[in-house]
């Protein structure tokens, strides 16, 4: 376990805003969990678990301990004719893990190519992209209770997975830590190509597309569409796509026929937040060093020297403008962290 005090967190998050933490622990092996518990008991303070820091916004200095999960390890647990069970430690970089699976010829996760962050964080907001949510591929999640060190294991059905949420993001983020995730990768499922960008890319090829080809296509499309956080700090989408009732969607469609809408299996309708933000003329708009990205309106980025408070001010401005124009309230996607810990929802 590595321990640092009075740490600048800007290098530990993809947004790169300055914020100090009283202490940072980096857990590199399973036994470090016990060392962390000893440290908690010796010096209690607010705590935040961190993976790759790609979905966290520090709004100010954090008067506590940041605990970064950096444990590694991945293995094939079992396989039969229908599926493979593959387990990875929480600290494994997500994209490296997906690439490793694809390189073994194991399909199932390739639609989630090139998403920053760690394996341990993917269940937290049920990471999703290009027509797949990771919860569909999770067999179970393992972890420990922070206070007691008690180990637990939850099957996917008990993880409360929903659109960009789970029980770990909502109710239990303060006392559960995820230590490993086991994925069930189907062996006989056709590639998931229903997302429009992928449909276009593979038009005419039917099912004859390999996981490696899907991985490469998704990675290439993402690189073209999304700003690279190493070049311009960001946390991906800053807002969730709002989900509304069919009545609200119809009312909106009457006034804005081009508003992209996606019917969900439960009858509700998902609306494109980026389209609404763009229609409000907010692309490129700034508050301090935080800016709405020029090409991708759903992304707020660090245009240089941004502070956490700039992102808060910009997020509020975007949310109020969209609410005035469309009557729809946008929800922030990343985790907002104040002085004492998580402060969501955005007030
Ligand atoms: C360029 C870019 C593109 C992105 N694209 C997508 C996308 O397509 N789809 C998508 O869903 N997300 C996307 N994201 C958001 C982000 O990458 C994911 O949410 C990712 O899973 C976060 O992983 P992380 O390790 O960086 O988590 P962090 O940002 O470190 O943490 C996020 C939350 O998870 C908690 N957490 C982290 N690890 C653990 C653990 N082991 N146990 C318990 N809690 C934990 C943290 O406390 C925090 O609340 C994108 C981000 C960027 C920068």
TrEMBL record:
User: Would you tell me the Gene Ontology cellular component terms?
Assistant: cytosol
Transmembrane regions listed in the UniProt entry? none
**Which keywords label this protein?**
Cell cycle, Cell division, Cell shape, Cell wall biogenesis/degradation, Cytoplasm, FAD, Flavoprotein, NADP, Oxidoreductase, Peptidoglycan synthesis
Which GO BP terms apply?
A: cell division; cell wall organization; peptidoglycan biosynthetic process; regulation of cell shape
Keyword Cell cycle in the entry? The reply is yes
Question: Which residues are annotated as active site?
Answer: 164, 237, 333
Q: Pathway, according to UniProt?
A: Cell wall biogenesis; peptidoglycan biosynthesis
The cofactor(s) it depends on are: FAD
Question: Its catalytic activity?
Answer: UDP-N-acetyl-alpha-D-muramate + NADP(+) = UDP-N-acetyl-3-O-(1-carboxyvinyl)-alpha-D-glucosamine + NADPH + H(+)
Which PROSITE patterns does the annotation name?
A: FAD_PCMH
Q: Which residues form the FAD-binding PCMH-type domain?
A: 5-188
Pfam families assigned to the protein according to its UniProt record, in alphabetical order: FAD_binding_4, MurB_C
Q: Where in the cell is it found?
A: Cytoplasm
Which Gene Ontology molecular-function terms are recorded?
A: FAD binding; UDP-N-acetylmuramate dehydrogenase activity
Entry's EC annotation: 1.3.1.98
HAMAP family associated with the record: MurB
The record describes the protein's role as: Cell wall formation.
Q: Which family does it belong to?
A: Belongs to the MurB family.
The protein, known as: UDP-N-acetylenolpyruvoylglucosamine reductase
Which species is the source of this protein? Tepidiphilus thermophilus
Protein encoded by which gene: murB
């Amino acid at each position: 376990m590595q321990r640092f005090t009075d740490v600048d967190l800007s290098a530990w998050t993809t947004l790169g805003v300055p914020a100090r933490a009283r202490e940072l622990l980096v857990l590199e092996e399973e036994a470090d969990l016990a060392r962390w518990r000893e440290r908690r008991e010796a010096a209690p303070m607010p705590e935040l678990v961190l993976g790759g820091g790609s979905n966290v916004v520090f709004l100010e200095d954090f008067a506590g301990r940041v605990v970064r999960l950096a444990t590694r390890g991945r293995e094939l647990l079992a396989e039969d004719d229908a599926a493979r069970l593959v387990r990875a430690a929480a600290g494994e970089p997500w994209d490296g893990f997906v690439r490793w699976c694809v390189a073994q010829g194991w399909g199932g996760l390739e639609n989630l190519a090139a998403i920053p962050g760690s394996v341990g964080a993917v269940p937290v907001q049920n990471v999703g992209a290009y027509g797949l949510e990771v919860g569909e591929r999770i067999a179970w999640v393992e972890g420990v209770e922070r206070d007691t060190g008690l180990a637990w294991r939850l099957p996917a059905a008990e993880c409360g997975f929903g659109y960009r949420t789970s029980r770990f993001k909502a109710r239990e983020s303060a006392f559960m830590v995820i230590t490993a995730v086991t994925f069930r990768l189907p062996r006989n499922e056709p590639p998931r190509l229903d997302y429009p960008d992928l449909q276009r890319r593979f038009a005419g090829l039917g099912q004859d597309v390999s996981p490696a080809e899907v991985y490469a296509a998704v990675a290439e499309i993402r690189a073209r569409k999304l700003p690279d956080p190493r070049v311009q700090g960001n946390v991906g989408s800053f807002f969730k796509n709002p989900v509304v009732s069919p009545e609200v969607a119809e009312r909106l469609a009457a006034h804005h026929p081009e508003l992209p809408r996606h019917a969900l299996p439960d009858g509700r309708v998902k609306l494109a937040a980026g389209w609404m933000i763009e229609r409000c003329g907010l692309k490129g708009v700034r508050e301090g060093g935080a800016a709405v990205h020029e090409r991708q309106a759903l992304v707020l980025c660090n245009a240089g020297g941004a502070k956490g408070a700039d992102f808060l001010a910009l997020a509020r401005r975007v949310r109020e403008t969209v609410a005035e124009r469309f009557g729809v309230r946008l929800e922030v996607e990343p985790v907002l962290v104040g002085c004492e810990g998580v402060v969501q929802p955005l007030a």
